């Protein structure tokens, strides 16, 4: 009997290959998906790759990891044109989930190990954080830079997840008005105008040099803030406010109570008053209003005194007319729109209080968190 033509062309190898492919398909369907940790590590690596600078003209908020190719004639190829679409940049209440980049900026005259330890403990993804410092070009500044570089070196050579996207250190190109950084000297009334105008210049130099086109948030954090919640960035950005500031307190030993206690420290976050406005109207064009001095009774409502330390509600929010800069979170677009720290009397205000006024003139409201605390070093 003759065999059908199709059966004569069928080979046993065909059945073997079909069985092998079917087995492979089943293995693919039944194999477990990658673990959450693997996915997280992959996302972290991807974010670090996306954050890497591609040419020497990249802003200092990006780590420069790639070198330009050398052409056949031996010369280095010119850097490419880089395009940034600011319309796609977001600053939202879900900053960490959306991978929004944060720039921490710190004017630094003295180095406190507690400050750096506190920054390293921040739980916001470190690959999304860039840090910038500006230090006076003085003997004390040299000492501070040496200690700072040592601390940075340990962190940036440690575990990958602890490393920041980039760290920049700037040196001031002008002399500070005060040679002494003693707390009593810094806070004398007669030193405030020149000190705070100098601070404004330092803040602006730092801001304009380091603000990158992919920066969503700017956290101004003073170098003597040695304690804050590890979730500081997430907590502040969660309010989705253009400008927001926590309450700055200080821990100290209360001799009357014979135990450790807390007290207000920063009095620059306030609601304006009619008395302050009248006082400003009587001033000369170069005079400034300052808070916390008996010689200038402003009778403003100070956020420092509105805290409920017994039963705090960290999410309680209030509108402010002036802000302090000890821990100040700002949407980067507020700075891009022109709000900076006036080194001149702006409505008789300078530095951070002048910044709040300038931001408000641009249409941005400042907010405060009276029951959310960061702590200042106690000298």
TrEMBL record:
<keyword id="KW-0732">Signal</keyword>
<dbReference type="GO" id="GO:0006487">
    <property type="term" value="P:protein N-linked glycosylation"/>
</dbReference>
<feature type="region of interest" description="Disordered">
    <location>
        <begin position="38"/>
        <end position="70"/>
    </location>
</feature>
<keyword id="KW-0812">Transmembrane</keyword>
<keyword id="KW-0735">Signal-anchor</keyword>
<dbReference type="Pfam" id="PF03452">
    <property type="entry name" value="Anp1"/>
</dbReference>
<dbReference type="GO" id="GO:0000136">
    <property type="term" value="C:mannan polymerase complex"/>
</dbReference>
<keyword id="KW-0472">Membrane</keyword>
<protein>
    <submittedName>
        <fullName>Anp1-domain-containing protein</fullName>
    </submittedName>
</protein>
<feature type="region of interest" description="Disordered">
    <location>
        <begin position="175"/>
        <end position="200"/>
    </location>
</feature>
<dbReference type="InterPro" id="IPR052086">
    <property type="entry name" value="Mannan_Polymerase_Subunit"/>
</dbReference>
<dbReference type="GO" id="GO:0000009">
    <property type="term" value="F:alpha-1,6-mannosyltransferase activity"/>
</dbReference>
<keyword id="KW-0333">Golgi apparatus</keyword>
<dbReference type="InterPro" id="IPR029044">
    <property type="entry name" value="Nucleotide-diphossugar_trans"/>
</dbReference>
<keyword id="KW-1133">Transmembrane helix</keyword>
<feature type="signal peptide">
    <location>
        <begin position="1"/>
        <end position="37"/>
    </location>
</feature>
<feature type="compositionally biased region" description="Basic and acidic residues">
    <location>
        <begin position="181"/>
        <end position="200"/>
    </location>
</feature>
<dbReference type="GO" id="GO:0000032">
    <property type="term" value="P:cell wall mannoprotein biosynthetic process"/>
</dbReference>
<comment type="similarity">
    <text>Belongs to the ANP1/MMN9/VAN1 family.</text>
</comment>
